[in-house]
Write a structure and sequence with these properties.
The protein is an alpha+beta fold. It contains three helices and four strands; from the N terminus they run βαβββαα. It has one domain: Alpha-Beta Plaits (2-Layer Sandwich), CATH 3.30.70.20. Strands 1-4 form a two-stranded antiparallel ribbon. A two-stranded antiparallel ribbon has the order 2-3. About 35% of the residues are buried.
Length: about 110
């Protein structure tokens, strides 16, 4: 089992989760974070740290975000590891309130 970063992270990219991860399983894209399922130890430390509630255990991922399992797996192989907290994106407060924003996901590395 692994944890999955879902749509609420897009254009927010809070990195509080990265700071508590004991295995550095987070990878950074331009406007999103992804979890490497091969590195995640399913400790759950990251879940309560996310201010927009974007991280879920895979078996609790809401159905409307099921594609994020594959996205996290694929993007984590393409993006660099992030292991230290950074500032959130400039408009994170605004985008944290937006419900549907899949089309805004950039697949560029961070």
């Amino acid at each position: 089992m692994t944890h999955v970063v879902a749509e609420p992270c897009i254009d927010c990219k809070h990195t509080d989760c990265v700071e508590v991860c004991p295995v550095d399983c987070f990878h950074e894209g331009k406007n999103f974070l992804a979890i490497d399922p091969d590195e995640c130890i399913d400790c759950g430390a990251c879940v309560p740290e996310c201010p927009v509630e974007a991280i879920f255990p895979e078996d609790e991922l809401p159905e409307q975000w099921s594609e994020y399992v594959e996205l996290n797996e694929r993007l984590s192989k393409e993006w660099p590891v992030i292991s230290a907290k950074k500032d959130s994106l400039p408009e994170a407060d605004h985008w944290g309130e937006v419900a549907e924003k899949r089309e805004r996901l950039s697949e560029e590395p961070g």
